[in-house]
Amino acid sequence: MRLAVIGCGYVGLVTGSCLAEAGHDVVATDNDLARIATLNAGRLPIYETGLDGVMERARAAGRLRFTTDCAEAVGAAEAIFICVGTPPLESGEADLSAIDNVAQQIAAVTRSPKLVIEKSTVPAQTGEQLRRALNVYGRDAGGSFFRVASNPEFLREGTAVGDFFHPDRIVIGVEDQESERQLREIYRPILEGRFHCPVHQPACPAGRATAFLVTTIASAELIKHASNSFLGLKIAYANVLADLCERLGGDVEEVTRAMGMDPRIGPQFLNAGLGFGGFCLPKDIQAFNRLAERHGVDFTLLKETERINKCRIDQLMEKVRKALWVVKEKKIGVLGLAFKPNTDDVRFAPAIEVVRRLQAERAVVRATDPVAIEKARAVLPGIEFIEDPYRVARGADALLLLTEWAEYRQLDWKRICKEMARPLLIDARNMLSPAEMKALGFEYDCFGRPDLSVRTTLVTA
Ligand code: UDX
Q1: Looking at CB atoms within 10 Å, which of 172, 369, 383, 439 has the fewest?
Q2: Which helix (H) or strand (E) holds 306?
Q3: Which tens digit of pLDDT belongs to each residue from 131-169?
């Protein structure tokens, strides 16, 4: 099918490239000229595992093109995916101006019937507004050309390509049979496994069949916000448990591990630490809460989730102050800047906020990250960035581990301990073993995990 993708950010690039890999003809557009120039030069403006290969194959096969001209992208398309940003406004509500803008552009250039699909995360009832805007601005073209659908994405940054090809569920919110038919057609290659999987070679493992859910547009919109908010809620719950464990001497990992064995709870998203960040969870929780407020529904639960999450940074700073006594002029090394591993995204990253707070307290910060240094440099002036984590640790009074990159587990911690002026390690992601770190000579702190080596009985599975 001929498809247009409007917006070449994380969601648009993954969606466009993967749908082209699946056999569709995709033209993607963005109003950021530099971004399109980068893409046309065969480079990716973001870091996303496996996306470069998918994009390259699709471009080589002539199924994926990039243009700055929205009319060119939209003109021949049978269906259009809107993948523009919906950043938070000051009020916490989603800023829908980019969606409104795109609706006007589509309406201005369309002369044949089209399905317009919301892929961007939007509050419930946006579909209705979108349809109205399209039909009002497109009235000169002579009639209601537009059908609207919602098709929320559940892509995690870092594993987005794998998530696209192997989704747990595909949700489509539609109002008519033709839209459902078209969306089924668009996703047929994914459901039937007809694509070259960049994640699994030589073949994808046999797994569960993907659920294809057809709902109303409002339900589809709600499913996205409800899912992300619930994930944030789970993390916040684990974080409060960690605080309780610190007071009572329990170990949050033992508690959440046992909790997660109950299939009604599940083991994921119960890792305590510095809390959640990124461009989705924090803003989606805020927007969902504001949406509830606006419609007279008390969702204090979400307000609390937001508050608990913000407090994680205060709590880390409290640990830093308590250990260092005076923070001013202390040399502090920071390991990890991205909001989570396997991405260079630093938007709403807890690590970035921690560095800002350290700067405000006049600490001397040196920071590293396997891939996010360039993005962090743009938002953290006055910080020394060093690629080598050992050099970050050298001569430091404290080292803070802020992003759970797997490679940090493999570091030569003995060497790091020796190189530091004071071997103070605060593991804000609960990645390392308290007993091992203490045995190496570190003053080690984390969230809600005592040193298990001091226990008299330890039963392991
Ligand atoms: C999220 C959703 O998971 C995805 O389905 C949606 O479509 C987009 O938003 P993403 O923003 O990539 O994906 O991040 P996610 O993997 O959900 O992690 C969010 C944050 O939570 C990260 O900062 C991570 O470090 C933190 N986290 C995650 C925890 O603190 N504890 C956990 O147990 C899990």
Answers
A1: 439
A2: helix 300-324
A3: 989 988 887 666 568 999 999 999 999 999 999 999 999
